[in-house]
Amino acid sequence: MYEFAVTPAVTQLRRPGVIITEVTEGSVGDELELCPADRIVKVNGRTVRDYLDFRFQTAGETELTFHVKKPDGQTIEIEFDRDEDEDLGLMFEQIIPRQCANECLFCFCKGNPEDARPSLFVRDEDIRLSFLYGNYTTLSSITEDEMKRIIEQRLSPQYVSVHATDLKTRAYLLGVDESRADISDKLERLLAADIELHAQVVLCPEINDGAILEKTLRDLAAHYPKVVSTAVVPVALTRYNTDERLTRVTPEFCRRTIYEVEKLQKEFRKTLGVTFAFLGDEIYIKAGAEIPSRRHYGNYPQIEDGVGMVRSFTNAFEKMLSEPPASVGVQKRGVKALANVRTNNAAIVPPQSQSNWPPAYAGGSDFGTLLTGEMFAPILREHIDRYNAQTGSRLTVLAVPNAYFGGDVSVAGLLTGQDLVAMKDKVVGDFVAIPTITIKSDEPIFLDGMTYDDLKRQFPVPVYDLDTNGLIEMLSK
Ligand code: SF4
Questions:
Q1: How confident is the model at residue 384 (pLDDT cuts 50, 70, 90)?
Q2: Contact (CB, 8 A) for 175 and 104
Q3: Closest Cα partner for 104 from 200, 3, 243, 199?
Q4: Ligand 1: does its nearest atom lie under 6 Å from the Cβ of 125?
Q5: What's the pTM?
Q6: Residues 120, 113: contact at Cβ < 8 Å?
Q7: Regarding predicted confidence, which is higher, 291 or 408?
Q8: Strand duo 46-47 + 63-69: pairing
Q9: For a Cys-Cys bond, which of 162, 191, 319, 399 suits 374, CB 3.0-4.6 Å?
């Protein structure tokens, strides 16, 4: 849900083949006179269902035959040779996500305002996107074809929402019957085929916590290293999700969870050599507990699930403060390399604006406002205060309440355009920076449908967007 890396194009009909969106000038594709809107339907006689099939069927092949359907309906056959691994210079349409067949108690679709954009009600669950972008799937409605495809095309790792290994609890959480919820055979099959898995537990107080959580983590750890890691993230309920079966996460609940899981983490480090089960940053922040050390997170296997983001940012920030500006380079800090660990090299990633930090800042103005979610704001403010004291800059951090979703939603990634605009009279200085994660990656709009241009027009000062790498890069100039 709300995965901005891909666009749920629900209105498009699924047609065989994969559509070309761009052809690089002078490339093999260009020489073959392939054009945007051409659809490649077969490669070497094998049907192409999507971009992943195309990649799989062309990989390492030097003699290729394409069947291409032109926009006018004509199908042509193109035979050609290429050097091994020579790039074809083609870009393709995004994969259209498959929908889930669950009714999860905590599904974010149930937490949307009634008038939210239709795309916010899309329940995408797709093993291809799990491989490409690290999106979680429950595997509960995976077809035999998809199982075979994961194994044949080595779509590894897969990201699986397990929630509980106790079958009754899992079925209850997913809102499906036990036979559908039971994925034990599927997991065994994937693991036997050496497909790596990362697991997720959305922690719901009084449902899959306590002994159920301990059993889940132990069951999964028994499959380490094929099950590489498990993220335990707290359920976040908006003000619209009023299902009485769900209990909100409290600071006391977070403290208890940390206490219980820490014991298991110690045990896993002893027996497996890694922490294996990671708690989401939100749990530590809500509990008022210290964020674990860098070593705790290893290579941050679940950072895009909000696990270790704060530690990664804090360490990069500390390093920046301790280094003279001339030697500072965000690439050296390791943060950039960690930011997209779940996104596969094979993924189609829309070009993102890089280093979009305020020119005013570079030009000498160090007076501006940084907006972020309520959860991260106190952490960012503490760091920025130290930075201001050290450099004499005048940066202000403002926490933006999430009025659109309300409830427990306090992460920056779910802030909407109207939430950000509501802060316009409070910003100070020559510019305002908003979190890049609030903007859709392939289209400049926010979750509530407001366009980036609309938002910019409503602020009295220029608006820029920054991710944590961009922020550190800006501050180190
Ligand atoms: S798997 Fe569950 S949480 Fe995810 S989209 Fe489907 S119903 Fe919602």
A1: very high
A2: yes
A3: 243
A4: yes
A5: 0.87
A6: no
A7: 291
A8: unpaired
A9: 399
- Reading the block at residue 223, the tokens are 């499959």
Q: What pLDDT is attached to residue 334?
A: 36
Whole-number Cα distances in Å, 211 to 154, 235, 387: 34, 18, 44
Find the farthest-apart pair of alpha carbons in the chain and give their distance in angstroms, rounded. 67
Q: Does residue 173 register a pLDDT over 50?
A: yes
pLDDT value at position 340?
A: 52
Confidence of residue 342 (pLDDT cuts 50, 70, 90): low
- Cβ(421) to ligand 1 under 6 A? no
Distance CA 3, CA 254 (A): 26
Give the nearest ligand 1 atom to 138 CA.
Answer: 1
Residue 153 has pLDDT above 60, yes or no: yes
Q: Name the residue at shortest CA distance from atom 8 of ligand 1.
A: 107
Task: Provide the 10 A C-beta neighbour count for residue 306.
Answer: 19
How many whole angstroms from 124 Cα to the centroid of ligand 1? 7
Tokens 């110690």 belong to residue: 266
Across the chain, mean pLDDT equals 89
CB 437 within 8 A of CB 467: yes
Measured from the Cα of 103, ligand 1's closest atom is 7
Would the pLDDT of 114 be above 70?
yes
CA 402/CA 236 separation, integer angstroms: 12
What are the distances in angstroms from CA 150 to CA 17, 96, 327, 418? Answer: 19, 17, 44, 41
Ligand 1 contact, 123 CB (< 6 A): yes
DSSP-assigned letters across all residues of 464-477: EEE-HHHHHHHHT-
Rounded (5°) CA angle 15-20-23:
175
